[in-house]
Design brief:
Radius of gyration: 22 Å
Distance between the termini: 63 Å
Strand content: 25-35%
CATH architecture: Sandwich
Number of helices: 4
CATH superfamily: Immunoglobulins
CATH class: Mainly Beta
Order of helices and strands: HEEEEEEHHHEE
Helix content: 10-25%
Number of strands: 8
Length: about 160
């Protein structure tokens, strides 16, 4: 009888621990109706006990992530795919080289990418650069939020 009573007392505790958890979600990121061909998607759970999760997009805009159940804010950033300007030829006159060096040092530092906030975040994406509105680069400005639920593990993200 004691064992039964003890078991019944533990039942509510076990039920409370079973809530929440994590879910493997997947989806596609589209910009203006077309798949975004590369970049990083960052998911920041509303619950501060969970870490931010960043995953790479494939060339068709698809992703997979394991996220905690609950509300998440989302950011999408593909600036690492942006083409870099070509290096100047090595035989430029010294005055031109000096002017180029000065111009480089006066540029503001690049905006922080999700990988800088989370050292375990992916850093090399593949695909093709597509110019996105700047607001999508951070979870604070993107306006993208989702509820992660075990019954609905598909989260497509539409950027406009």
């Amino acid at each position: 009888m004691r064992t039964l009573l003890f078991g019944l007392l533990l039942l509510p505790l076990a039920g409370g621990c079973a809530g929440g958890g994590k879910v493997k979600v997947s989806g596609q990121v589209r910009y203006k109706g077309e798949p975004l061909p590369g970049g990083i998607v960052t998911f920041q759970p509303e619950d501060p006990k969970f870490n931010t999760v960043a995953v790479l997009l494939d060339e068709q805009g698809n992703y997979e992530a394991t996220l905690p159940v609950g509300k998440v804010q989302v950011a999408v950033d593909n600036r690492d795919l942006q083409p870099r300007p070509a290096a100047p030829p090595p035989n430029l006159p010294p005055a031109v080289q000096q002017a180029l060096k000065k111009a480089k040092t006066s540029e503001p530092p690049p905006a922080s990418a999700p990988a800088e906030k989370n050292p375990s975040a992916p850093t090399k994406s593949r695909g093709k650069y597509v110019a996105l509105p700047e607001k999508y680069y951070t979870v604070e400005k993107s306006g993208l939020t989702f509820m992660v639920e075990p019954k609905n593990p598909k989260l497509d993200i539409e950027l406009k």
